[in-house]
Amino acid sequence: xxxxxxxRDREQVRKLHxxxxxxxEIARAINRSPSTVSKIAAAFDxxxxxxxxxxxxxxxxVRRADLAARRADLAITLHDVAExxxxxxxxxxxxxxxxxxxxxYAEKWQDEPTPADRRTMMATAGxxxxxxxxxxxxxxxxxxxxxxxxxRIMEGLAQNYAERHGSEAPDDA
Length: 173
Fold this sequence. Notes:
Layout: H1 7-18, H2 23-30, H3 34-43, H4 53-88, E1 93-99, E2 104-110, H5 115-135, H6 141-165
Antiparallel strand pairs: 1-2
Helix pairs in contact: 1-2, 2-3, 4-5
């Protein structure tokens, strides 16, 4: 049989709850089951609650903001990769080979990469830019300005109607 709930248990639950401890932490601290802690908390007037929805919501917002910042950083890195690859298209390029029966090493500098290598560099740059734009799409500020102008025109028309007719604009039927 479980030991009965006593005043010492109630006092410990009240004190630990006041310090912000979670239900399971309190249960471990006083050697009781979480359901017993819930029962003790519910018996108080007013009942003690362990609702952490607000904390979870704030933590979720913080996590989303952190992830957005990381995506922005990654988009910048991908743009850097694309720029570096595009810059290599017209720079001298080192070609080398290693092998043969004597395992010899040979290298040769070309004024610029071969067409096949340029295609590969362009594909790399294109993929990096594509991923970057998916992570941080450009904002269409012209569209936002247009919506703002249209909104101001509509407000002006409504105000003009109200001034001429002495009331609010009629509802659309």
